From TrEMBL:
Annotated keywords: Oxidation, Oxidoreductase, Potassium
Entry similarity comment: Belongs to the aldehyde dehydrogenase family.
Superkingdom to which the source organism belongs: Bacteria
Membrane among keywords: no
All residue ranges annotated as the Aldehyde dehydrogenase domain in the record: 30-490
Protein name: Sorbosone dehydrogenase
Organism: Mesorhizobium atlanticum
Length: 494
């Protein structure tokens, strides 16, 4: 039995929880009924934040504010260069508050602080990229329709957008949506996860300081049923941009369809990394551990299925096991930590339940598998399960924890079959020195992203999203702003 983790209490533990008010029409407001949500740090166990909890009245007020800002405010009407200037200023302000934001995300989500810093750095890059797209967004013109006709296709902002985000990358995911909606000239109502809302509220303050007019961005803390659902059905909303589970994504899309709202869906994943014998096995082993345990596996892109060629399985997995046992699990606020706390006790139990079920189904826990004893917070040991077969729940369902399932193959056809044998299609990885092999896998895997001899890298320039039940639409990339627009055709006759 390992010694219990010794989690040091940070300075925040002896302070009053930070309080956050809702942001509606440029003002910070309490909920009308005075309700609040308390968030305890999953890594330490003390209440770190208290948010005003929105209800129906606040959803209505936020919608009215966003609608007014869209219909009569300056934001959709101003020059793109002026909108870009606000986004660039926001990026600069995020940079000056990077440490504060990273700490909030680490405290509320349990992710390692060093990783959180990297995410905020990535978010800054995205805000700057979106600013560049604001200025290059353009429509089309057609002078080939006859001498008396000119066709012009405008790209207009779509209107009020509801943005709903999950808890696993609190600041990064809102930054994959909001700057593009703003670049297009839209207004928004944003609902972060009820567990990790603090950094989104900080973002709201930053946007006001950067010069965003009142009402353009409204931020509500609250639960899915009370706040998320009415944000999806509200008649003033034209588009819903949702990131979260496939289960809630389906409900959200069904609700949005009642009023034919546009949807953008970034949902779950069950991603495979396929390792061939001719690969750089050292790099592949590093990527297996990184892919499996990054963000404690609470990651849509987690490489949760390791699909290894039989010929190298024993040696390769021995190397992966050694590396995984060196992964430093512990205090999210410790710079050296690689795997932090699990988001909630319920979620940890769910993940542990998958491990138990895998054992019953014939899986073999090769390393890890246990809850780690600690003086505070909730932590799981990075876990690898061998002898997994395609029919097992652990091979099919999104576990969302630090659990790597190993499946093996002898032919490329079998590897592809395993990789594609899931309702999800978010991402995949392939490791081989053969360009033929890499090309075959990259072309045949049904997923929105395929990493070849690398894993889980992301760039604002590259579109991201899922095939199959991993989502609908793409975020990032040069068309990201277009997603938040309508096309209007104007025909000029003389
Ligand atoms: P979730 O679906 O439980 O919640 C996501 C958001 O939806 C939260 O803000 C929640 O309050 C809200 N919500 C819940 N019920 C709602 C309803 N009925 N109507 C409207 N909103 C509602 O997901 P989660 O547990 O917060 O996040 C984990 C999931 O997110 C995983 O499945 C993960 O794969 C997915 N995810 C996907 C991506 C991607 O880019 N594809 C990125 C990160 C996370």
């Amino acid at each position: 039995m390992n010694a219990p983790l010794n989690i040091a209490m940070p300075k925040e533990a002896s302070q009053a929880p930070k309080a956050y008010k809702l942001l509606i029409d440029g003002k910070h407001v309490e909920a009308r009924d005075g309700r609040t949500i308390e968030r305890a740090s999953p890594g330490h166990g003390f209440v770190v934040s208290r948010y005003a909890e929105a209800g129906a009245a606040e959803v209505e007020a936020a919608m009215q504010a966003a609608h007014k800002a869209f219909e009569t405010g300056p934001w959709p009407r101003m020059k793109a260069s002026d909108r870009a200037a606000v986004l660039l200023k926001a990026a600069d302000l995020i940079e000056t508050r990077l440490e504060e934001i990273a700490r909030l995300d680490a405290l509320e989500s349990g992710k390692p602080i060093a990783q959180a810093r990297g995410e905020i750095g990535g978010a800054i890059d995205i805000w700057r990229y979106a600013a560049s797209l604001a200025r290059t967004l353009h429509g089309e013109s057609y002078a080939n329709l006859g001498d008396d006709m000119l066709g012009v296709v405008l790209r207009e902002p779509i209107g009020v957008v509801s943005i709903i985000t999950p808890w696993n990358f609190p600041f990064l995911i809102v930054s994959q949506k909001l700057p593009f909606a703003l670049a297009a000239g839209c207004t928004a109502v944003v609902k972060p996860s009820e567990m990790t809302s603090a950094s989104t509220f900080v973002l709201g303050d930053i946007l006001l300081e950067a010069g965003l007019p009142a009402g353009v961005v409204n931020i509500l803390a609250g639960f899915g049923a009370d706040v998320g659902a009415p944000m999806v059905s509200h008649p003033l909303v034209e588009m819903v941009s949702f990131t979260g589970s496939t289960r809630v994504g389906k409900t959200t899309m069904a609700t949005a369809s009642n009023s034919l709202k546009k949807v953008s869906m970034e949902l779950g994943g069950k991603n495979g990394q396929i390792v061939f014998p001719d690969a750089d096995l050292e790099a592949a082993a590093d990527a297996a551990v990184f892919g499996g345990f990054f963000n404690a596996g609470e990651c849509c892109n987690a490489g949760s299925r390791l699909i290894v060629h039989e010929a190298i399985a024993d040696d390769f997995l021995a190397a992966v096991k050694t590396l995984s046992q060196k992964v430093r699990v512990g205090d999210p606020l410790d710079d050296r930590t690689k795997v932090g706390a699990m988001i909630s006790v319920d979620h940890m139990e769910k993940v542990a339940g998958y491990v138990t079920a895998a054992k019953t189904d014939g899986g073999n826990v090769f390393t890890g598998g246990a809850r780690l004893a600690s003086n505070a917070g909730q932590y799981l040991d990075p876990t690898i399960i061998r002898n997994v077969t395609e029919d097992m729940a652990i091979a099919r369902e999104e576990v969302f924890g630090p659990v790597l399932s190993v499946l093996t193959f002898e032919t490329i056809e079998k590897a592809l079959h395993i990789a594609n044998n899931t309702p999800y299609g978010l991402s995949a990885g392939v490791w081989s020195a053969s360009i033929d092999t890499c090309m075959s896998v990259a072309r045949s895997v049904r997923s929105g992203t395929v990493w070849v001899n690398t894993f889980m890298e992301g760039y604002p320039e590259l579109p991201f999203g899922g095939y199959k039940q991993s989502g609908l639409g793409r975020e990032l990339g040069k068309r990201a702003v277009e997603d938040y627009t309508e096309e209007k055709t104007i025909q000029f006759h003389r």
